[in-house]
Design a protein that fits this description.
210 residues; alpha+beta; four-stranded antiparallel sheet; 10 helices; binds flavin mononucleotide
Length: 210
């Protein structure tokens, strides 16, 4: 498959066939992720591929518990709205494999230096918001998902479960000094129809300054 075809073939897969994903294939996906560019070549990522169904269930239970705990402190209408989207945070439960993505800390260039100046909090915040560490993780995840598509799989990039990071890490029993869970990627053979929202056209997202 050529690159343009691959880009168009990728979509967020939320339902999977009951078909295993061999470790060899997972290695190829994670190798593709590891070839992504990263700020100062920090390669500030780590990928935990979870194939154990009990652990995947416990991770999903952790997210469900967190959703119900948060909901219990919200006014009813806000709790209802929050709960309505809960399936978008828990559907990974039925995936044959879930890759937990960990990001290592990254201090943007100039941040420490700015701290020693009269730089405004807004200036510092702006620098942090564009944190190259998390941009690098995005590049790695996209590489991984495209490699998965190239091998006949599909997946979904998930950050909705992030509010349950502690619960997920507890279920995983994995932690790495200086690293934090930033996304879950359920991966498997897609089941059912492709469902993908339309994309903005290029004129809308492009500005040319000549
Ligand atoms: C950073 C990021 C976080 C996302 N988090 C979730 C998520 O938690 N749950 C979910 O169902 N989809 C999630 N998605 C998938 C988006 O909803 C999806 O990419 C978007 O609707 C476009 O659809 P497509 O991927 O099929 O092109 C996420 C995508 C990105 C890039």
């Amino acid at each position: 498959m050529n690159y343009s075809e691959l880009i168009l073939k990728r979509y967020s897969v939320r339902k999977f066939k009951d078909q295993e994903v061999p470790v060899e294939d997972l290695k190829k996906m994670i190798e593709a992720a590891g070839n992504a560019p990263s700020g100062k070549n920090s390669q500030n990522w780590h990928f935990v591929a979870v194939k154990n169904k009990d652990i995947i269930s416990k991770m999903a239970e952790g997210v469900e518990k967190s959703i119900s705990d948060i909901s219990s402190e919200l006014p009813p209408e806000k709790a209802e709205k929050f709960n309505k989207f809960s399936r978008f945070a828990t559907f990974f439960r039925k995936a044959p494999v879930v890759i937990a993505v960990y990001a290592g800390e990254y201090v943007p260039e100039g941040y420490k230096e700015l701290l020693q100046t009269k730089a405004s909090p807004e200036k510092l915040e702006r620098l942090m918001k564009a944190n190259p560490g998390i941009q690098s993780i995005g590049a790695a995840i996209e590489n991984l998902l495209l490699a998965a598509v190239d091998m006949g799989y599909g997946g979904c990039w998930m950050t909705s479960p992030n509010h349950s990071g502690d619960e997920i890490e507890k279920a995983l029993g994995f932690n790495k000094e200086g690293y934090m869970l930033v996304a879950l990627l359920p991966i498997g053979v897609p089941d059912g129809e492709r469902k993908s929202p339309p994309k903005k056209n290029v004129e809308e997202i492009m500005t040319v300054i000549e």
